[in-house]
User: Fold this.
Amino acid sequence: MTATTGVATQQRRQRSDPPPRRRRPRPSRWLLAVAVAAVVVWSLLQTDVGVSSLVLGRAGAARLLSGMFPPDLDNELLARVAAAVIETLQISVAALFLGAVLGLPLAVLMAANVQMPRWLSGGARAVATVLRAVPELLWALLFVATVGLGPAAGVYAISLHAAGLLAKLCSEQLEAVDPAPVEAMRLTGATRTATAVFGIFPQARANVASQLLYQWECNIRSSVVIGFVGAGGIGQALGIAMNLFRYQQMATLLVAVVVLVVGVDRLSRAVRGRLGAAAPRRDGRCSMWFPQSLRR
Amino acid sequence: MDIRLTEVTVALDPHRPPVLVGVDLGVGEGEQVALLGPSGAGKSTLLRVVLGAVPPIAGQVRVGGLDPYGRSADATRIRRATGIVRQRDDLVRGLSARTNILMGQSHHWRLTDWLVVLRGRTPHRHAAQLGALARKHEVEDFLDVPIEQLSGGQRQRVALVRALLSNPRLLLADESTSGLDPRRAAEALADLRRADGATLVVTTHDLAVARQFPRIIALRDGHVVFDGTTLADGTVHDIYGRQPVGVRS
Assistant:
């Protein structure tokens, strides 16, 4: 038995195969499962989650829901809701633009296949980490204190967080391109800029565009949330209605939020679908992310 | 530009046997060499080693007296003096043939040249040479066509023009004739061999192609198993007294 094992080990060494992974013994797996379950139960109990809290709060919920019906359809309110929806869209688009202006260069600096100097890529990574580690709500509180109530604070808050997210996600898209043309460019002695512009970005442009559209969806949702702290848009109107117990107005605003989020989600998904189809397109037409002149 | 490999061993995966084992060879300035061997022999890896893309775990590499694994500036000098045509499709999809050809010259460009290339045109400094090469290699008709719309043979010619545009002192071709019909393959080989004064290393698995070169180096399982000359009658003579083995004639 020992001799057989020894021969097998020797043969494996000769073939330079990695040793087979040992399975974790069953008792420790059970212990791990019990520990995870204990943490989940402890968290639920400590946060007072349960049917009893819902039952106790049923009177408040009933008052809120009954107060919301029928929704307020006053013309003046509908005009204000429309203006708030437009402002929310403006916040999301402006934040996407600023987020992309800051985030995409960071993504290029961070992408490993661009091979920027380590101090530069490390610095970019640190900046992106800080930007996305701070939630939009916190950025919004800071900017409301800095530039005052209104949509500008919302744009700054969302764009900083979006820049951090875009930097991370787009750098991953850049790193996922086919390495063969990139290496071929590098082997010609091409500069880093040329390698990024001609070797990496054309391959990743559809995915990066898709990422930007997805970020736009996120910006819409974020702008609704940060509106509650006075950063403009429909969220701000919703917060005011809630604080003043105007539940019928709140119902109208909630319907507008749902319509806006679903509409933007559908539109973004449709455009992303078309971009996804456009990436391997062979008809010679260009997508919006790279000049037509380079293809034709 | 001469190449000198001294006892070079390369392992791409620490769990697998080395791809090149103690390779010891030299290629003189202006020499034309066929690197012969079956798939997996280590031919492509050897070319990448020469250009500083795969660091050896042992041994020494010198190209034109420079160490491609020393200062990064030396690796860049070697690469900018080298033209490479590879078997793999190294051209960037989504870009025109013209942009694919020009992008290897970006280190010469000023801002105005960048703008010209981004508009899909040829910078003045490359216009005459690109025009001549495009005519010679019959790529001028599809210079503005996206690369994914070209046939395999057309792409190979685009890659060849890209390699020749830099007036290379070292020309490396990795199975560059494998995607071409016999007439085009012969022409491409002749074009490579006509590159003025450049050292030429062509990898192939085909003994008939290798026989067209004055010197053949055969690789098998990462070892040099033959290094010899081709005589006028097409027979080959080995400095080790052996014949090429493990290759298809």
